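Summary for the steering committee. One of the milestones for this cycle was to obtain a three-dimensional model of the protein with zinc ion bound, which we needed before selecting residues for the alanine scan. The sequence and ligand used are listed below.
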Amino acid sequence: MKEGFIQKSAGVGSEELTQINRFTRREFTADELYVFSVVLCDNEVDRDFEQFTPQALEKLGELFIGKPGLFDHEPKATLQTARIFSTAVKTVEGKQNTCGEPYVQLTARAYLPRTQENQALITEIESGIKKEVSVGCAVKKRVCSICGKEDGRCRHTRGEHYAGKLCYFKLEDPADAYEWSFVAVPAQRAAGVTKQFAGKTGNGGESMTLETLKSMKPDGITLTAQEVERLQKEIGSLEELAEGGRKLREEQIRSVIRSAAVLYPGIPAAVLQKSLSVLNAEELAQVADASRRAAHPAPQPQLAAAEKTAQNKEFFI
Ligand SMILES: [Zn+2]
């Protein structure tokens, strides 16, 4: 699993103090700070059948420096107490992931000021209550582990085996790291890595969240504050489009009813309304178009009109 966790705390060295003070408004002394280690993620294939490559973990490590840690995904400024000040990618000796590759972890060092407000959290971290960590990030590339094609443009299904090899997405080229959160309940299904894709299918990034949601399994979906914001924006623009579609539909139904009043005056409008309401957009457009043509035939071109008149005359003779 890719869920991170908090490791044992350790004292602050002078080198770390220098690193930390790059992020603080004033100089802190070692006594004023609580410093701990966090495993953010690793190169294990996760429950979504996705895996960060060691190169992606390196890049994520750079992106996570300076990022605040939240409690239980509450993005309130007052709760953004811990901050990552350094990261490292470590190969764990003698351990392999499920693919038989050397097991690699992205670890971070984080600090929080030893204030009265933070004391409860420090106690929870030290006692092991807050031991899970979930992270949110955006990745540009997803590569099929079997054939190397990107973004699922192949016939392989993630989670299936091909010639004994598991199919999963290799996540490459991280674009952004948003946040990391302490998760109070250990081993919670929702804990883990929240990934967003800003890759080649990107339409300015905004339609990505719905795409990501559609491709996710229903359990264990965790959204970052940024994803929720994008989702809200996207739902807003979809609502506008839907409103436009609804108006067009109403207009088409009215048009058919008007035409029908000429063509079939005996059919009540309510009956037409009822039968038209079950048609999909394309069917309704066809009916509207056909009934308009039938009720209001286009004027004939002059030449054709002359011929018709001549024929009619012959007929009458
Ligand atoms: Zn493939």
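Key point for the committee: Residues 144 and 192 are 21 Å apart (CA to CA).
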